[in-house]
């Protein structure tokens, strides 16, 4: 079993839809949970992170972590064509300067 | 001004050749990384350096040798290239006290 599992999709939704992206993990030592967005032919960029369990909201994006289920989610409200990208979950045991373990990424297309 | 820059962006080379990829960050970060992203978009850590000292060395063939001349630079030298080395190689950096990495835009290596 891989440490981090993520459904690679692809996921295709109409503009304005609510998108739900998810990852599961097996290592209970993970404390920091991140979502990265990667546009085609570009490097990943950090969208948001959460420490331990709980929710975090940033504009149209909401990240949720359920450590008891080892399950994390990213919700995108009112999705836009500019949200079309690969979304990667990533996790680490520490906050900074720690190794990140990534999921395989989910390719999202938002159709106008 | 690019925060994490990699050169070259594209590299096409024959099997058996030796090649180098260079990375420079101007963010003042103290830790740098090399990640490999395969054709299925899976990002896996290879190496990590903190202030020129190697701190993470994952299970990577010893044909791959990182070098950090100073904390702003991390280069990757690959000997005797094989077809399976074809991938996108990302450099990243991070700073103590700040969550997440800043990635470069990647070097697309194709071995023919």
Tell me about this structure.
The complex is a heterodimer of chains A (112) and B (112). By secondary structure, chain A is mainly β. Helices cover 0% and strands 54% of the residues of chain A. In chain A, the strands form two sheets. In chain A, strands 2, 4, 5, 9, 10 and 11 form a six-stranded mixed β-sheet that branches. Chain A has a five-stranded antiparallel β-sheet with strand order 1-3-8-7-6, with no helix packed on it. In chain B, 0% of the residues lie in helices and 56% in strands. Chain B has strands spanning 4-7, 10-13, 19-25, 31-37, 43-50, 53-57, 64-70, 73-78, 87-94, 102-103, 107-111. In chain B, strands 2, 4, 5, 6, 9, 10 and 11 form a seven-stranded mixed β-sheet that branches. Chain B is globular and about 40 Å long. The mean pLDDT of chain B is 93. The chains are: A mainly beta (112), B mainly beta (112). Chain A binds chain B through residues 8, 32, 34, 36, 38, 41-46, 49, 86, 88, 95-97, 99-102, 104-105, 107, and chain B through 4, 30-31, 40-45, 48, 50, 56, 90, 92, 94-106.
The beta-strand count of chain A equals 11
- What shape does the CA trace of chain B take? globular
Structure summary, number of beta strands of chain B: 11
Instruction: Give the DSSP E fraction of chain A (strand runs of 2 or more residues).
Output: over 45%
Mean pLDDT reading of chain B: 93
Label the structural class of chain A.
mainly beta
The rough form of chain A would be described as globular
What is the chain-wise order of helices and strands of chain B? Answer: EEEEEEEEEEE
The low-confidence parts of chain A are none
Question: Could you spell the SSE succession of chain A in H and E letters?
Answer: EEEEEEEEEEE
Largest beta-sheet details of chain B: 7 strands, mixed
User: What quaternary form is this?
Assistant: heterodimer
Pairing-aware structural class of the strands and helices of chain B?
A: mainly beta
């Amino acid at each position: 079993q891989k440490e981090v599992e993520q459904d690679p999709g692809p996921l295709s939704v109409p503009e304005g839809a609510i998108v739900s992206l998810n990852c599961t993990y097996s290592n209970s030592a993970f404390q920091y949970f991140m979502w990265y967005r990667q546009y085609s032919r570009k490097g990943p960029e950090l969208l948001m992170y959460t420490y331990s369990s709980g929710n975090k909201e940033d504009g149209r994006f909401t990240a949720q972590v359920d450590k008891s289920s080892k399950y994390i989610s990213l919700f995108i409200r009112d999705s836009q064509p500019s949200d079309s990208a690969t979304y990667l979950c990533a996790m680490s045991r520490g906050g900074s300067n720690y190794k990140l373990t990534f999921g395989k990424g989910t390719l999202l297309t938002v159709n106008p | 001004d690019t925060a994490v820059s990699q050169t070259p962006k594209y590299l096409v080379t024959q099997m058996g050749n030796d090649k180098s990829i260079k990375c420079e960050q101007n963010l003042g970060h103290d830790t740098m990384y090399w990640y490999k992203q395969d054709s299925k978009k899976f990002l896996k850590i290879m190496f990590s350096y903190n202030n020129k000292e190697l701190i993470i060395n994952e299970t990577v063939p010893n044909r791959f040798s990182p070098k950090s001349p100073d904390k702003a630079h991390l280069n990757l030298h690959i000997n005797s290239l094989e077809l399976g080395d074809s991938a996108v190689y990302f450099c990243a950096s991070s700073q103590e006290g700040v969550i997440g990495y800043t990635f470069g835009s990647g070097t697309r290596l194709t071995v023919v």
